[in-house]
Amino acid sequence: MEETAILVKNLNKTFFIHEDKKSTMRALFTSFFNQGKTRQFNALQNINFEIKRGEFVGIVGRNGSGKSTLLKILAGIYNADKGSTVEAKGSMVPFLELGVGFNPDLSGRENIFLNGTIIGMTNKFLQEKFDEIVEFAELKNFIDVPVKNYSSGMMVRLAFSIAIQSNADIYLLDEILAVGDENFQKKSANVIRRLKKEGKTIVYISHSMESIKAYCDRALLVDRSELKMDGNPYLVTEEYRRVNDVSVPQVKEETEKDRWGSKDVEITNIKIMDDGGVEVNEFTKKGNITIELNYKTNKQGHDELLFGLGFYRQDGLHVTGTNAKNHDLYPITAKDGTLRYTISNEFFLDNDYALTVAVFDGITNETLDYHANRFQFRIRLNNQDHGAVALPCKWEVIA
Amino acid sequence: MSYNYSNMRLLSQNKVDLLVELVKTSFKMRYQNSALGILWVLIKPYSQFLVQYIIWTRITNFQIPNYQIYLLLGIVMYTFFNELIILGQMSLLDRAHIILKVNFPRQIAIFSALLSALINLAINMVFFLIIAVLNKVTITPLSILYFLFLTLIIFIFGVGVSFFTSIATIKLRDLKNVFELGLFLLQWLTPIFYSVSSGFVSGSVSDYIAANPIGIVINQGRAAFGITGQINFQLMFAYLLGSILIFVLGWVYFNKKVKQIAEYF
Description:
The complex is a heterodimer. By secondary structure, chain A is an alpha/beta fold. The relative contact order of chain A is 0.11. In chain A, the strands form 4 sheets. In chain A, strands 5-6-7-3-8-9 form a 6-stranded mixed sheet, sandwiched between helices. In chain A, strands 10, 12, 14, 15, 17 and 18 form a 6-stranded mixed sheet that branches. Chain A has helices spanning 25-33, 67-74, 108-118, 123-137, 152-163, 182-197, 209-215, 233-244; strands at residues 4-18, 38-52, 56-60, 85-89, 92-95, 170-174, 201-205, 218-223, 226-231, 259-260, 265-273, 282-283, 288-297, 305-313, 318-323, 337-344, 351-361, 367-379. In chain A, a hairpin with a 2-residue loop joins strand 8 (218-223) and strand 9 (226-231). In chain A, helix 3 packs across helix 4. Chain B has one domain. Chain B is 75% helix and 1% strand. Chain B has helices spanning 8-31, 39-59, 67-94, 96-99, 107-134, 141-171, 175-188, 203-210, 213-224, 233-261, and one strand at 2-4. In chain B, helix 1 packs across helix 5 (107-134). Chain B is globular and about 55 Å long. Chain A binds chain B through residues 15, 22-25, 28, 72, 75-80, 86-92, 94, 96-97, 100-101, 103, 105-106, 110, 113-114, 117-124, 169, and chain B through 1-7, 10-11, 13-14, 17-18, 20-22, 25, 28-29, 32-33, 97-104, 171-174, 178, 259-260, 262-264. Strand 4 of chain A pairs parallel with strand 1 (2-4) of chain B.
């Protein structure tokens, strides 16, 4: 475990950007007398880190922070500036993208050999693994169809299935774990875990903090060309959030997509409050989240009202949801009124959440008013548990 | 920067397979969804031959024996040279989508493009040989061997030039048009449908044309099949050395520059 797989020392990368790019002859002639300005852009500045064999390291950073440049330098596509040290020990497969060189007019079969050899496998090896690739991609009946007729899901499944066959010591993955449907994602997650078990070194770039936390042993935060942080993925993703979104979530502008229902009964106002009854959108102290909603009846005929709400994490995960009936508040017969819902904020891990609220006719199940993901709030309690929620629990020494 | 690859043998097998796959793909792509398919390789030079043959035999009298074979071989060889230069020049740019994502030896991109030209030549030559035999040209093993030797000279030269032009074209896209124009003009300065001694061109112009290296190689091709002229092996050996020199210089330049070029795509 102590062996070094990747060593990066004093890594600098400067791009020279010609203000008016001279890639045509005319531009070259006109700028002969009027030299266009060359601007220097330091894409990476003094980056230092070492990755041990068998480590699974995540790289996070905003678009344009330099993380893709870093990966391309590791992959050997860009040269680093003079004086930089970049060493990789062992064979390496860079998946900067899935399905490199895929040709839409060729069949799945032909693309397996084309893409497979491009990413470093031999023809003989691909022939041996052919059935396995097709099976994993779940494309048995479509393998002789041109890939231009594939759905995008089928395409990435094929690309991923080829990619994972390549046998190397170091894998560079750029945002490729979240492909395919749920079932396929499970399968691919298993493959990645297997690679990890086999002691492969993996460098993984992602914008999904959840997958960084789920897979990585360690994470690097690249911000404005510099390596800002190197350490525990939980702390690094937290810092990424802190650095990158200063804006506190707000109530979203309502669009037709976010709201539907007959509005015979309408939810007119929603308030998210802390223990002091103050409307907030960020919780930094332990306590309750209190949600109050006002409703009024626009059209008679709905005698039993059923209220429900749900919490969604910013990446779309449905964290929890409930309706009033499950908590013995049913039926509600009053035509106008205010409801209150209370939940401890300690169940929520640090993240941004969206609140969905709705009212239904309890007899016909008709949707009367549905506000999807409109109200957002943020939890900052610094709870280091992992997963989707924090459940109450206790650790004790009993012997 | 250093990369220690653990399994060199496997890697070099991969390079060969990659080369084969890229050539196969570019071939498939060129003739995908086309009714005549691979026949197009023949149609282009042979239709050019037909038109030129009809026109030149009507309006001039070159006094060249076995003129149809003389003309056909000239067109086939110049087409090969032309394809080498154009395909080689575009080889990196055309494969940008792979080059920016995967770190394979970039020379493979050039070789794969130029191998397509070589395959086209092979197909054209098969038909040339059939037509030549029908026209009572005697083909000996020596003539085939000498022709292969000439092909090698042009090929090595084409690869060497492509090492420079493929990189230059990324920086300056106009070069594509410059080369197309240059090759078109050069075609007229090459004894393809005429011969230097036929009086079609005269005075100092004919001296320049006589010194045109591609023309000299094409004439050596004609000599190989006993159409016109004498085999000059010594001169061709000097050409081979020249081509190798260009190849080596190109290789050095290419290796030095190719990594930097990724930023210019």
